Amino acid sequence: MPVQRVKFYQTGSFVVGNRLLPAEQRTVQSDLHRTNALTSGHRACQGCGEALGARYVVDAAMRAADGKVIAVNATGCLEVFSTPYPETSWQVPWMHSLFGNAPAVATGVAAALRAKGRTDVRVIGQGGDGSTVDIGFGVLSGMFERNDDVLYVCYDNEAYMNTGIQRSGATPPAARTMTTQAVGAEPGNAFGQGKNLPALAMAHEIGYVATATVADLRDLEHKVHRAMGLRGARYLHVLVPCPLGWGIPSGHTVRLARLATRCGLFPVFEAEHGEVTGVTPIRRRVGVEEYLRPQKRYAHVFSPEPRQDMIDALQARADRNIRRFGLLDGRPDEDGGDAPRRNDACCQNNTSCQNNTSCQNEAPCRSEEQS
Question: Model-level pTM?
Answer without folding.
Answer: 0.87
